[in-house]
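Data availability (excerpt). The following record was deposited with the supplementary files.
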Amino acid sequence: MTDTLIIDSGGANLASLQYAFARLGVATEVSAAPKAIAAARRVLLPGVGSAAAAMERLRAAGLAELLPRLSQPVLGICLGMQLLFEHSAEGDVECLGILPQRVRRLQPSPSRPVPHMGWNRLEETQTDPLLEGLASGPYFYFVHGYVAPVGPFTLGAVEYGESFSAVVRRGNFWGVQFHPERSAAAGARVLANFLAL
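Predicted structure:
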């Protein structure tokens, strides 16, 4: 049984995520095999690119049906977090449906270009083991053009012209909109907390 498995969702920055875990002393496996994913002790769903293309890859690999049924800790990262929701406006696509809300496009303005790229401060809205031990108002690194609304499953929010979910949870599924593997000590702490779940 694999301890920590990263889903090979195609186009994701898998090497930097693996390296982030290696810095924590943890070896990871990268796979898109349903049996390996189902048997892993914890699972990460990273993602870059478009929601429609990512969902097409998950469906082709037989993972769109499997993922919502997993009972071990699962962490969606960036696009991977957005795929946990029921629908994304990016490609007008039905997603995994674990979180009953819809992902929408981030609204640009002259002072706030989209995609949103850079460091932003997280406001914790609910306590959770994933966020344990973080300094007050930690900064994380974001690269995205679509957002999930703040709602009952939001653990932490960020302000970028509007408030959006940066950390979410429903049961054994967590999601982070930022890139923990690029977020220095705060990101490393989130990954270490995930390993402890």
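Summary of structural features: The mean pLDDT is 95.
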